[in-house]
């Protein structure tokens, strides 16, 4: 036997772009061939993009995906790449034997291509139906295992959720004398999820007594971010190779000659006798770095895949708009960011100065549009006072941004954070306008941490920090009335975020919160604000999910309900 070189192609695809995704498969297969690969594995549903949701239910879409697969097989053979074993995810279909006359149902499928044709198909067994996933409703479950023979080596094939659930195809292959378990994935980014994946893969490796190669997709798709981080663990669960997160990458690893390891993969064999391609192990990202880069990837993917070349946002001089502007500059370049200062009679000089300073640092197209003349007209006609008058200012700013977007083709970015969204601290049709909200799943405490991380990252490479220090350190304020600060209406953010984490992220009720030692008055106020703001959250733009529980994707509560925490 000889070594079998495995290439894990963590690539960025777009849902529905069958032609573009086909080109991606061909391009990265060429790269794998040039690197001497025998097997190249692509992520889950690479041909179709992921998640395809109800597109899977369209027979015309399934026919298009199948045609794309045949095009890939033919194209590889024509280019002299037919010897490679190419494993690629797509949508399949099948009819149950008991109901042959029934319409075919879609399946989440891994397809094996070699010698110019499809050699094998494997349908995903375990279909997730929690959090962001709705696969159980859409797809039919697979029933058969799949083991490939590559140069005399036995490679088991499964898809993502199949290794997250006990039993099923992995358990069925425990005694199949595998040399490798190959897992293709579409696993979205979440804070802290990297170690969960590797620990899970280590368990499955020990279960099948073989290494596990795990390939994951990368890039933003609507409100999901896929972070790559493909890896290989050995039969004992030890990490052998890992790709970097949040970038496209081809990870190479050699499945060694079994005769060098011993018939049972004896780990006592001398390391020098097990040739590998210099195992690449990318370092772990700092948690703040990972979240920052995930948000950038989410915005970048959303803009590119929806045809936007520029963004517009309000620059107030505060921390939220400053961070969003820098994220946008990192995603598409500062020259494609339109930052609009829209001062009112209550805007402080330092806020206006900070907004201008930020725009200069990132190279944004900076504009100033005072709102006082417009506000004066509405106030004169409507006679608004109090909160209604304050919200009028936010709505004038929303009108300005949307007007610019319509005239010039920008995507408007909402700059609110998860803490504000949780308690409804935003104005519908005002600061909540826009097509994308980069900080939607980032709480206020994390906003400050990400700003610090980004400034420090600039300093580390000898550059000017993009965010003015005063934007980070000054008390947050909407500046809709004289002397206003956020803490006039809300508890301090450090306290608020701890209560929200317990109530929203961990679903703890009032009794549990009081047992933690939180003040009853604070608890009652926060819970009431959260419960009454669901109608606002339903109208907020989508944004990248980066935590275990994001509004919209993971947490959907009734708008109208009389339930209150006892």
Structural notes for this entry:
It is a single chain. The chain has 566 residues and is α/β, with parallel strands linked by helices. The protein is 38% helix and 17% strand. It has helices at 18-34, 59-78, 135-138, 161-164, 168-172, 193-208, 258-261, 287-305, 319-332, 349-362, 372-382, 386-408, 418-423, 444-460, 469-473, 493-505, 510-515, 520-532, 534-538; strands spanning 4-10, 39-41, 85-94, 105-114, 117-123, 147-150, 153-159, 180-185, 212-216, 218-221, 224-227, 231-233, 239-242, 249-255, 311-314, 337-341, 365-368, 411-412. The strands form four sheets. The chain has a six-stranded mixed beta sheet. Helix 6 links the parallel strand 8 (180-185) and strand 9 (212-216). It is elongated, with a radius of gyration of 26 Å. It starts with a strand and ends in a 28-residue tail after the last helix.
Shape: elongated
Radius of gyration: 26 Å
**Amount of helix:** 25-40%
Question: How many runs of DSSP E, i.e. beta strands?
Answer: 18
Structural class: alpha/beta
Q: Strand percentage, roughly? A: 15-25%
Give the biggest beta sheet: 6 strands, mixed
**Strand ordering within the main sheet:** 5-4-3-2-1-14
Mean pLDDT, nearest integer?
Answer: 92
User: Based on the structure, what is the oligomeric state of the protein chains?
Assistant: single chain
- First-residue to last-residue Cα separation: 67 Å
User: How many helices in DSSP terms?
Assistant: 19
Low-confidence stretches: 261-277
